[in-house]
Write a structure and sequence with these properties.
Its main location: membrane. It is found in: Membrane. InterPro entries: Sc_DH/Rdtase_CS, SDR_fam. It is a single-pass type II membrane protein. The structure is a single chain. This protein is an alpha/beta fold. The protein contains 21 helices and 14 strands. Helix 2 runs parallel beside helix 3 and helix 14 packs parallel to helix 15. Strands 3-2-1-4-5-6-7 form a 7-stranded parallel beta sheet, with helices on both faces. Helices cover 55% and strands 12% of the residues. It has 2 domains: 295 residues, 3-Layer(aba) Sandwich (Rossmann fold); 234 residues, Rossmann fold (3-Layer(aba) Sandwich), CATH 3.40.50.720. Strand 1, helix 2 and strand 2 form a beta-alpha-beta unit.
């Protein structure tokens, strides 16, 4: 099997690139024709029912007005009932034939079920669901007084959208309706001081990309990634604290109009204003340049001297001028950047870190990738702190690690989803060893099921609690010690965090949140702490055995050995790599998603339901 991966790493990239070059022109023509068709046959929402969360202010409020102008019936949900009533009154004046207000907290699963039921009982149907509710928090990761308090961002921004979507799906299937998910450019352009906000928005984007592949044509999904927009979230000291004084804020009304137009056209994605997509291009082509810019901008200035008032004319000019200017600058900077990157790669291979005698803490070390990572570090003479829930399995791993050359191994039984356990295992490791050099955040659990088949939606919280918060808590308590040793964090994400992998929407979202959070932390830490983000494909472990592979419809994808994957991870960490995709051919799928997202979505939907079990087809 490992020979197959070696062959695919060599053969698949050139074959795929050749196919893309042959296929891309006809695909772009098809996409252009489809775009024209969507403009001509844009959906009329007069008389249709639209439910909007977070409708008491900001984008949600103006979305209500925009739908009202088009004659839609509205169900407005938010916590502030007085504000909602004022929005509802104005919506009626603008032309909405019927408006109801529902006071609710979307972070509570029972509230989400209640307001969906109330809306459907009142109107008898549901056509558009707009998941807009969200909150923001601006602070350096290390400055959070109580790390567990940051969970409110994920509960509101991510779980709020998940809960509402889960209860709305049956009604949207009946009407062949549409979901509009309001994410943010912060979901792809990680920003310092906003690590949890960025992570929650990355999770939303990943979640809806996977659902789009699951639903196919039954329910349309439009994923919106706005830039800085005038709202309560971006007023006060937000802009200066986030060091975005130089970024022109778009008017809420203009943004809302663009969103409703996009939803009615049936677009898959909307970036508003369109010039902000240049940041994504820069991140894909020159991620280090963006990191350096954001890090030094964050450290060296409290406010930018280039202040701009919110002007739609400015936005229009930037939409026209910025793309060609950015492309020219990229063409100029790309050659020297690639040379520097190549030299850095050679340097990493030559001056690879010697971890003999250094202290490595590994979570999820009782089996799978974590176990094999422990053995790889042991062979190199590192001292190990192994963390997992299964103490009996840990003892076996510790014994084997000592035989392989580790001079000192300690075991700590802990549950990474509990903040007090994470503090305890970091403290115990420090008391025993007196230092910490590498932190490997590996603990995780799989989740393969269609969202609408989950018997109890709140049971899925454990996936994010372990896969995301388990890494966050351990990192939070380890950072002061890693700063002292100029250590490294190795975070094990997944290829599912980079592209949709139905039916694993929650798992993919948890891994996308990990990637985004650690990209933000890399900017905050600068050169003080190195971060290697690992996105493995299918690796042989307890997580990929049994019926999981058949449920995920990936039986035909070759599985890499855990030992080879672990060796690649430790090699990459010692070189100081920013990213590792293992096996490397998996990166081709990400390229495919960037260039032809619709094709990937169609393929995944067809794969999921072509030979699906009966219960999956029934759900479809």
């Amino acid at each position: 099997m490992d020979l197959i991966h070696k062959v695919m790493n060599i053969v698949l990239p050139p074959i795929t690139l050749t196919l893309i070059l042959l296929f891309l022109p006809s695909f772009l023509v098809f996409k252009f024709i489809s775009c024209i068709k969507r403009y001509i046959t844009s959906e009329r929402v007069a008389g249709k029912v639209v439910l909007i969360t977070g409708a008491s202010s900001g984008i949600g409020e103006y979305l209500a007005y925009e739908y009202a102008r088009r004659g839609a019936c509205l169900a407005l949900a938010a916590r502030r009932e007085e504000r909602l009533r004022a929005v509802a009154d104005k919506a009626r004046m603008l032309g909405s034939p019927d408006v109801i207000v529902i006071s609710t907290d979307i972070s509570k699963v029972e509230d989400c079920e209640r307001f969906i039921t109330e809306a459907v009982n009142h109107f008898g149907r549901l056509d558009h669901l707009v998941n807009n509710a969200g909150i923001i928090q601006i602070d350096m990761f290390e400055h959070c007084k109580e790390i567990s308090d940051c969970a409110i961002l994920m509960n509101t921004n991510f779980w709020g959208s998940v809960y509402v979507t889960r209860f709305a799906i049956p009604h949207l299937r009946k009407s062949k309706g549409r979901i509009v998910g309001i994410s943010s450019i912060a979901g792809w352009c990680s920003v310092p001081k906003m690590s949890f906000y960025c992570a929650s928005k990355a999770a939303i984007t990943s979640f809806y990309e996977t659902l789009a592949a699951e639903f196919g044509p039954d329910i349309g999904i439009t994923i919106v990634t706005p830039g800085v927009v005038e709202s309560e979230m971006s007023q006060g000291d937000f802009v200066s604290k986030a060091q975005m004084d130089f970024v022109p804020a778009e008017s809420t009304e203009r943004c809302a109009k663009a969103i409703v137009n996009s939803a009615c056209r049936g677009d898959r994605y909307l970036v508003e204003p369109s010039w902000t997509r240049m940041s994504f291009l820069l991140k894909v082509l020159c991620p280090e340049v963006m990191e350096w810019h954001l890090h030094w901008g964050n450290i060296n200035s409290s406010a930018s001297p280039y202040c701009c008032e919110a002007m739609d004319m400015t936005t229009k000019l930037m939409n026209i001028l910025l793309p060609p200017i950015a492309l020219i600058m990229l063409l100029l900077i790309l050659p020297p950047y690639l040379v520097l990157k190549f030299l850095g790669l050679i340097k990493g291979f030559i001056y690879s870190e010697d971890v003999a005698g250094k202290v490595v803490l590994i979570t999820g070390a009782s089996s799978g990738i974590g176990e094999q990572i422990a053995y790889q570090y042991a062979r190199r003479g590192a001292r190990l702190a192994l963390v997992a829930r299964r103490e009996d399995r840990l003892r076996g791993v510790a014994s084997e690690a000592r035989k392989m050359g580790s001079p000192d191994v300690m075991m700590i039984r802990a549950d990474v989803s509990k903040v007090e356990d994470c503090k305890r295992f970091v403290d115990e490791a420090m008391r025993h060893f007196g230092q910490l050099d590498h932190l490997v955040n590996n603990a995780g659990i799989p989740c393969v099921c269609l969202l609408e088949e989950a018997p109890n939606i709140s049971d899925l919280n454990s996936v994010v609690d372990i896969n995301f918060w388990g890494s966050v808590y351990g990192t939070y308590f380890a950072v002061p010690y890693l700063r002292k040793t100029q250590g490294k964090i190795i975070v094990i994400s997944s290829a599912a965090g980079r592209f949709p992998c139905p039916p694993a929407s929650i798992y993919g979202a948890s891994k996308a949140a990990l990637i985004s959070l650690y990209e933000s932390l890399r900017i905050e830490f600068g050169s003080d702490i190195g971060i290697t983000i690992v996105t493995p494909g299918l690796v042989k472990s307890e997580m990929t055995t049994g019926e999981l592979r058949s449920k995920a419809k990936v039986e035909n994808i070759p599985v890499e050995s855990t030992e080879d994957c672990a060796k690649a991870i430790v090699d990459s960490a010692c070189r100081g790599d920013r990213y590792l995709v293992e096996p490397s051919w998996v990166g081709i799928v990400f390229l495919f998603k960037l260039l032809c997202p619709e094709v990937l979505e169609w393929c995944l939907h067809g794969l999921l339901f072509s030979s699906a079990p009966r219960n999956l087809k029934k759900a479809a």
